[in-house]
Specification:
Layout (H helix, E strand, L loop, with lengths): L3 H4 L7 H6 L4 H7 L7 E3 H7 L4 H10 L6 E3 L2 E5 H17 L5
Antiparallel strand pairs: 1-3, 2-3
Length: about 100
């Protein structure tokens, strides 16, 4: 296969972009792979608690979802608020409140 310079096509990645690619989130995650996460994202919270994301949003709209933390445009659920949410849901179940 001929190089892009020979065929007249643009190269896929410029040399300066290739150097910048080395510092990505993936490489940062690889450096700190042993460090546990500090909070759940909505999708990881749903996976950890066996919920669908639509159920999460329904519960949040009803006011029975976990407390959220916003960092910029991202939404996180801290481990502490997840534990408090689980305790509140257990107490509600014990009190006989409806599950929805």
């Amino acid at each position: 296969m001929a190089r892009a310079e020979v065929t007249g096509k643009k190269p896929r990645v410029a040399a300066d972009r290739a150097r910048r690619r080395k510092r990505t989130k993936t490489t940062q995650r690889a450096r700190f792979c042993d460090l546990p996460p500090g909070a759940y994202t909505i999708s990881s919270f749903c996976v950890a608690h066996d919920l669908s994301e639509s159920m999460f949003h329904k519960m949040r709209d009803k006011g029975i979802g976990p407390r959220e933390m916003r960092v910029g445009s991202r939404v996180f659920v801290t481990f502490e608020s997840a534990a408090a949410w689980r305790a509140a849901r257990e107490a509600a179940t014990a009190a006989g409140e409806p599950a929805e």
